[in-house]
Amino acid sequence: MSTPAPRHPREVLLGAQAGAVCLPACDHYAGVEARMRKSLALQAEWSARDGVCQFDVTLDCEDGAPVGGEAEHAALVVELVRALDWTAPVPPRVGVRVHPVDHPAFESDIASIVSAVGTRLTHLMVPKVESVADVARAAAALDAAGAAALPLHVLIESPAAVHRAFEIAAHPRVASLSFGLMDFVSAHGGAIPAAAMTIRGQFEHPLVRRAKLEIASAAHAHGKVPSHSVVTEFRDRDAVRHAAERAASEFGYTRMWSIHPDQIEPIIAAFRPRPDAVEQAAEIIARAAAADWAPISHQGHVHDRASFRYFWQVLERAYASGVALPETVRGYFP
User: Fold this and answer.
1) Least-confidence region, from 6-20, 145-159, 170-184, 303-317
2) Element (H, E) at 36
3) Rounded to whole angstroms, what are the CA distances from 215 to 53, 58, 142?
4) 23: which of 90, 173, 191, 201 lies 20 to 30 Å off by Cα?
5) Which of 277, 223, 226, 278 is nearest to 251 (CA)?
């Protein structure tokens, strides 16, 4: 009788969570043609260098298209996506932010972009989502455009949307929830000071903190990815990294927006597991696998499948962010 092949840690440890969404730690937004081209070229350069795509590029129609020039901007997005090297060893990861579902340009965005290149896109970002009904409307539009498999990312930007975050996250087409800081503050009619939009104030004002936590909790409850809001102080790399570290360690975010190429590396570095954490995780997973996933003792601590799950996820995040993995666990990854 042949010995059954060892089961993969993801299958053993995650169970129903094995289908949880996993995305690169940085989502880079660009809406001006020169910046869109530069961002796509930078992604290709990094992917060729690292052998893994460390950040998504989201081409922005909502803020990128001039008023009255929405159709021309959508056509440009299609042109840029079609021109990418889809035969590269590491394929591009490109999404598009369309206009809100109640905007006159929403339907034309879907018709122009999704019908043409929807099978190439990794996601469609829908801004200003207020309810599950908005998600359903976006999903129906994608289905009609022949993109029934295209995941939706949604942007939560109002107090009412935060209140409904768990319902929105539960929708099967939603892969990620993002927090729209500036619109959220503006939605309070001056009751939240402008300082709450700064790199420090957004982590201190109680209403903003609560919104961040609700969105992260809703995403994790349904196996989706919580994506943190932008930092407008884009030239201060240390400040960007500090904000990303707080978003990850204090608020449970696993992804963050970038709005300038200088922000990409600090964001990825902040979300990347530390080398000592990767080494520890590799040791524990290797020993657990050798014990057929029975409890083990490691450096004076007992570990079982609950902690094995945590350490496996450390390795998954390390791989996704380009960290070189120890040989003991390298074979678990492509």
Assistant:
1) 6-20
2) helix 33-50
3) 26, 20, 24
4) 201
5) 226
Retrieve residue 155's tokens: 């942007």
Structure tokens at 92: 């591009």
| β pairing state of 301-303 and 296-298 | antiparallel
CA atoms within 13 A on the CB side of 140: 8
Q: Name all domains of the chain by residue range, CATH numbers in brackets.
A: 15-271 (3.20.20.60), 274-330 (no CATH)
Q: For residues 157 and 23, what is the distance between their CA atoms, to the nearest angstrom?
A: 21
Task: Write out the H or E segment, with its range, that includes residue 96.
Answer: strand 94-97
* 265, 238 Cβ separation under 8 angstroms: no
Question: Residues 305-319: pLDDT tens digits?
Answer: 999 999 998 998 888
What type of residue sits at position 202?
Answer: Q
- Of the candidates 46, 167, 39, the one whose C-alpha atom is nearest the C-alpha of residue 96 is 39
CB 327 within 8 A of CB 281: no
Burial of 276 (0-12, 13-18, 19+ CB in 10 A): exposed
H or E, element range at 226 = strand 225-228
Nearest-angstrom CA–CA distance, 328 and 330: 6
- 287 close to 279: Cβ distance less than 8 angstroms: no
Distances (CA, A) of 182 to 59, 122, 175, 198, 231: 20, 26, 22, 10, 10
Contact by Cβ (8 Å): 192, 185: yes
